[in-house]
Amino acid sequence: xxxxxxxxxxxxRRSLFGLGAAGAAVAGAGAVGxxxxxxxxxxxxxxxxxxxxxxxxxxxxxxVTPAQDRLHFVAFDxxxxxxxxxxxxxxxxxxxxxxxxQGKEAGSFGAVGGDPAAAPDxxxxxxxxxxxxxxxxxxxxPSLFDERFGLAARRPAALADLxxxxxxxLVPEISGGDLCVQACAHDPQVAxxxxxxxxxxxxxxxxxxxxxxxxxxxxxxxxxxxxxxxLMGFKDGTNNLKLEDAGxxxxxxxxxxxDGAAWMAGGTYLVTRKIRMTIETWDRTSLTEQEQIFGxxxxxxxxxxxxxxxxxxxxxxxxxxxxxxxAPDAHVRLAHPSSxxxxxxxxxxxxxVDGSDGLGRLDAGLFFIAYQRDPRKQFVPVQMRLAREDPLxxxxxxxxxxxxxxxxxxxxxxxYWGRTLFTP
Length: 424
What we know:
It is built from nine helices and eleven strands. β9 (350-356) and β10 (362-372) form a beta hairpin. α2 (83-100) runs antiparallel to α3 (188-201). The relative contact order is 0.18. The protein is of the alpha+beta class. The chain starts with 12 loop residues before the first helix and ends with a helix. The protein has one domain. Strands 3, 4, 5, 6, 7, 8, 9, 10 and 11 form a nine-stranded antiparallel beta sheet that branches. A two-stranded antiparallel ribbon has the order 1-2. The chain has helices at residues 13-16, 83-100, 188-201, 246-252, 279-283, 287-294, 331-335, 379-389, 419-422; strands at residues 27-32, 44-48, 70-78, 135-140, 179-185, 206-217, 268-277, 346-347, 350-356, 362-372, 396-406. It is found in: Cell envelope. It comes from Nonomuraea coxensis DSM 45129.
């Protein structure tokens, strides 16, 4: 969430092993100080994409952190029924995550420093690579709050199961999960390395339920970032919640003790949706129809009838023919906060391409990620209206869904992910 601490950059894996400076030091997304959350004017800093983000803080990193370029998201099923083993796992994961996000190996002996006759405590594929802005964010699914661990009474009301939306065709095998970990980084190998090592540490206590790789972020979470494009070629997330929106973040993103689950104070709720696009059909659709469906022009990203991307959306504006520039069923109108009681989402989704389906069609689309204070009041009403009225539905299909409660951040080395849940 904030700029790297200390008098200089944290030592990278490459420098730790005497292999020289990190290769890619391209100026990347600006990191903004924690003062943004205290209503002080944010100050953007040019951070190299090799730099680390702090792991400890009031909130988990990887939420309002300026969105990185790559994603490896994984959902786990907990295979142990022992509450103490689950807590031990979360403590071990937290310790490993604190190291990994700072450009270190997962364990103190690393990939090559331990007993040669024993398995290493790091898999080694990230040796020589810098931290690359890695963030690791954990969440707890509704299924974790069953009878196994004595957590049923502590399930937040906001973690209510999502309703069935019209038209969705969810695949159970790639939906849900007891736990999730979101790894974001500027280097895909760093993100994959982190997930691989957490899965290795969890062996015998968790199993991977499903995972998703993503590239090319489809949202900006800081005003220091340019708006990216989705695989339909349109700028995505222009009006997204941003790191700098301190007041809106308190109102729309972060849970508070007064919401009914005190252990979630400082946390947030995550919804994931894998949305497959029928790319080939979309690519044969006229530019005019594409723009009318979205309600924005494809080049600049401006609202129809306006000139610039960040011009206000004027739903009353009409063209020379007397018709609204932005159609009543345009995506931007249906999803706009004004249509849903001022409900905002903080989106940080990614494009994906998972090969082809065997019929010459790309298996590609959007891995949608949205954080919010209460999905019942934010994601659910927005998605219900989109599912019923959005003409974009002709070109997309929701195939996977996930819902997770993301606890508050880790305070220091004595703390761990989910401590407030297990130690009231």
